[in-house]
Amino acid sequence: MADALTAPVAATPARADGALRETAALVAVWGTAALIAGVFLWILGELVWNGVGALSWEYLTSAPREAGRAGGIAPILVSTLAILGVCLAATVPIAFGSAVFLAEYTSDAGRFGRVVRTSLDVLAGVPSIVFGLFGNAFFCRTLGLGFSILSGGLTLACMALPLVIRSTEEGLRAVPREYRMGAAALALSRTTTLFRLLLPAAVPGLTAGLVLGIGRALAETAALIFTSGYVDRMPSSLLDSGRALSIHVYDLSMNVAGGDRNAYASALVLVGLLLLVNGVAGALSALWRRRLAAP
Amino acid sequence: MTKPAQKPVLEFGTVKPGARPWAPLEERPKCCEPRPFVRTEGLSVFYGSRAAIREVSLSVNRGCITALVGPSGCGKTSFLCALNRMTDLIPGAKVYGRVELSGEDILDAGADVVALRRRVGMIFQKPNPFPLSVRRNLELPLREHGVRDRSAIEEKVERALRDVGLWEEVKDRLDAPAQALSGGQQQRLCIARALALDPEALLFDEPCSALDPLAAGVVEDRIASLRGRYSVVIVTHNLAQARRIADWVALFWMIDGAGRLVEYGSSKAVFEAATHPITAAYISGIRG
Question: Domain for residue A219, yes or no?
């Protein structure tokens, strides 16, 4: 300690040298940021450039013909949304319950909580093809749901859950301890504290997790090929097989000669859908937060 | 650069060397006939195997302001938290001994903690209004405890805010977020929130130490104004504050690795005729 106090301060580098280093660091930081933004814009530009020509109301509302070379993507859009709906319906309540349990009823150091958290972190990193095989074995065969939208949605839920649970839990844990102490000192019940104080404060975490999870689900091909199948007919129930947009893109670009233009158009729709979901999630969470905080 | 002003900021010449910076303690108003409100017997609080306080027996008098003073880490806050079982929230905390409130041991497993905390409110060092509007901060606990009638709530909200001198300042923005208030206002809001539940006692854990001096002064005055109506226990590092507002003073000190109560008596007795050498040294500023 005494040494640190009495030792002479290290000489500041010569001015020119320092300025050069500053500039280099600045260029590097801006450069990487520009690179990332550039890559994203390039991809988007490529999609728009190649796909926007094929895009029309007609394209969104008609059935595909000639294996997707002609016609539209209506049934595929419906299947995608149905799969996403099933996924969300399963994910939100389960994620919510688990996150509340992990954040409020287990301690950081407790063994059970630690085991659950580690399993979730491992699950979040498992390749999607493994989830696909699991979904095929469990939902399609064991539960007898077959190749169906239900199987696909539930498999996606399994994939999204670890992400959503962990980020909701982080959101709950980030709520200042003072609120809990204050609530306890006012003899508020655990449920009041949870629903009136902690959850509204944790909504941003939940939304962030959900958006990540939905993104992962929408982009998924590997897990869905084995579970929801790739029949491109309009599904008539959740037990029908249905083709998701990402699979349609994959199929058009890999298996269908002359499908490139429509593949781009479908990919553009997929990206648009993703942006839309993000926007809606953000708006809903703002609304919900206000509602929870209101009387 | 211009020459610095010649006028001295402080007129040191007016303070005689050796003089005490405070006036002699006047006799307190007669709220303090010692009638016990809460009594502890052999109270010890452990965090794991470490004793925060050991064997503290103390009787807090009804309607008085009792200050707990002493250096950091000598168990004042642990003692305070044991009085309304906030120790339940601290992982690994264990409490031994007796804490008697109206003849019942509140440490008893069957004790009604909700009823206890309604009777004994608590205000923390850092103002902790909930992330809700000013009004909702008061409404939420009221509704939770069964006050549903609109006009009854309105009335209690206004009375509590008036009690802490906040009504005039916030009556036009009751629906603004509580977080937008200044630190001192937030702390007074927290006091109002506790008062709205009609408690019998309030526990303050260094309520002024996170505030600027002016706001601290306002909060302190409000706490002093609770004398007679509520039993108040206040933890403070500020001896001058204890001297200004307390009727009774308890000095905690770290002895053999655990917080112990070394002296307890009326403010006058502790500040002017301390019996324990540690107290005498602490009060006169030699130690601590």
Answer: yes
CA distance B85 to chain A (A): 9
**B67 and chain A: CB distance < 8 Å anywhere?**
no
Q: What angle do CA A31, A35, A40 make, to 5 degrees?
A: 155
Q: Check CB contact of B165 with chain A, cutoff 8 Å.
A: no
Does A5 fall in a domain?
A: no
What's the pLDDT tens digit per position in B267-278? 888 888 888 888
Q: Is B175 on the interface with A (CB under 8 A)?
A: no
Number of domains making up chain A: 2
**In the structure encoding, which two tokens stand for residue B53, read together?**
């306080």
Residue A197 covered by a domain: yes
Q: A186 CA to chain B: closest CA distance, Å?
A: 6
Tell me if A187 and B132 make a contact (CB, 8 A cut-off): no
Contact (CB<8Å) B84/A185: yes
Residues of the domain holding A169? 58-293
Shared domain for A36 and A115, answered yes or no, is no
Report CB contact under 8 Å: A196, B140: yes
**What is the distance in angstroms between the Cα of B36 and the nearest Cα belonging to chain A?**
22
Return the structure tokens found at B219.
């909060």
Domains of chain B, residue spans: 34-283
Distance CA B288, CA B277 (A): 13
Mutate: best of A186, A193, A290, partner B, most B CBs <10 A: A186
pLDDT tens over chain A, length 295 residues: 445 555 555 555 556 678 889 999 999 999 999 999 999 899 999 989 988 888 888 888 888 888 778 888 889 999 999 999 999 999 989 998 899 888 888 877 778 888 988 999 999 889 989 999 999 999 999 998 989 999 999 999 999 999 899 888 888 888 888 898 999 999 998 888 888 888 887 788 888 888 888 888 888 888 888 888 888 888 888 888 888 889 999 988 888 888 888 889 999 999 998 888 888 888 888 887 776 655 4
Token readout for A89 is 């319906």
Which regions in chain B score pLDDT beneath 70? 1-33, 286-288
Task: From A35, A51, A67, give the residue that closes a domain.
Answer: A51
Q: Is B146 left (phi over 0), alpha (psi -120 to 50) or beta?
A: left
Predicted ipTM of the assembly: 0.82
Nearest CA in chain B to A196: B140
Q: Which of B165, B171, B203 is nearest to B184 (CA)?
A: B165
Q: Between chains, do B197 and A189 touch, taking CB under 8 Å as contact?
A: no
Look at residue A12 and tell me if it is in a domain. Answer: no
Of A219, A218, A241, A244, the residue nearest A231 (C-alpha): A241
Which option is the CATH number for B34-283: 3.30.470.10, 1.10.10.60, 3.60.20.10, 3.40.50.300? 3.40.50.300
Burial category of A260 from C-beta neighbours within 10 Å (exposed 0-12, middle 13-18, buried 19 and up): middle
10 Å Cβ neighbour count for B4?
6
Among A30, A51, A72, residue at a domain's last position: A51
